[in-house]
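Structure first, sequence second, as always.
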């Protein structure tokens, strides 16, 4: 299984990264999740299959990256307030979860992670860790602006904002408009501020 930490040896070729993800997206659109294979992806990207496995531990991880995440994710620009930062991030999460490829991949990914603790751990170490780093950046901004008087756990912010969006889309099948995303962001900001100003650690 690939190491999620810093790689030794030659630096990874970003051209291969993009070629592999583009090939996976094309195949997802053409044949659907079940019929995508690592062999077909390697052939479409014109790379060796080993190059894919150095980046992704499984088909599920590859297709999740192709459908939902880029290889690197930048947090939204600083809007000047915690609530607006969270609203911008909620829009980004919603956009990625509602694209047609993501709607194919995520139910299959949930089923596979239920069967494979190794895959669940790998996703925690890569994609979830990256999202929480984005939330940590937003919380650090809010602390610097004085909105949060003490540090908070980014995992809490991640759950409060992403959880309702994910549940609405995949459990309840409810569409979310921008007003609802704003309401979720406002509730998240209020909860985080209350947590930071209350007693006890964040």
């Amino acid at each position: 299984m690939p190491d999620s930490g810093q790689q030794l040896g030659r630096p990874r070729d970003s051209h291969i990264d993009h070629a592999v993800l583009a090939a996976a997206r094309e195949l997802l659109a053409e044949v659907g999740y079940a019929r995508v294979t690592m062999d077909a992806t390697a052939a479409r990207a014109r790379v060796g299959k080993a190059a894919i496995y150095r980046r992704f531990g499984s088909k599920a991880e590859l297709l999740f990256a192709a459908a939902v995440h880029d290889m690197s994710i930048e947090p939204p620009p600083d809007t000047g307030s915690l609530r607006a930062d969270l609203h911008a991030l909620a829009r980004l999460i919603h956009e990625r979860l509602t694209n047609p490829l993501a709607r194919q991949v995520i139910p299959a990914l949930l089923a596979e992670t239920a069967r494979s603790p190794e895959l669940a751990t790998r996703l925690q170490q890569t994609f979830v860790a990256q999202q929480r780093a984005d939330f940590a950046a937003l919380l650090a901004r809010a602390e610097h602006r004085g909105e949060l008087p003490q540090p908070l756990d980014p995992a809490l912010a991640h759950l409060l904002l992403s959880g309702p969006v994910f549940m609405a889309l995949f459990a309840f099948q409810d569409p979310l408009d921008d007003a609802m995303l704003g309401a979720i962001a406002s509730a998240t900001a209020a909860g985080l501020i209350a947590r930071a100003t209350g007693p006890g650690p964040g």
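Margin note: Residues 17 and 71 are 7 Å apart (CA to CA).
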